Amino acid sequence: MSTVQATSATAVQDLAKNLIKSFDANSDGQLGQDEFGSFLSQLMNGIQTASGTMTASTQTAATGLQTLSRGALRRDLFEGFNFDREQNVEKSAKDAFASLASAAGAVPATKAEAENWFNQNVKQGMESLGHKVDWVKGDKFQFSNWQGSFVVDFVRGADGPNPSFTWLADQAGASLT
Known about the structure:
The protein is an alpha+beta fold. The protein is built from five helices and eight strands.
């Protein structure tokens, strides 16, 4: 239980540091009234309650635009994802993957491309959200978080005519017969 709290606290602290870096116009390590106002304005511009869409993005030096909720998701790239519920990228590795994969904008067409694509577009973001990536091989990866360790096949139809993102997860080390 304490590991979960530490991971969540670390993720929140990392997010806070990135937000301060993004909005700290005078680089004094603090957000003044105008800088905080800028942050709130950008946050509120991302919330569109009438349409039910919520987005909150932060520009970070290391990872670029990081989508933290369902507003920017490209639903057409995915199979087997429920985007009609609240997306929680810190608790759900599947939600984190969907957010990061959607931001990348395209599905890799082959297993070889999938491995490189994942390492370039998803791995760092997953880890910053508390989902440690243990390995990546082709269109599969293993991650560990507060729920355990899982192996995920993330591209349906890799090396075929119409690939899409999917989430076929099995407990790591499970024997499938």
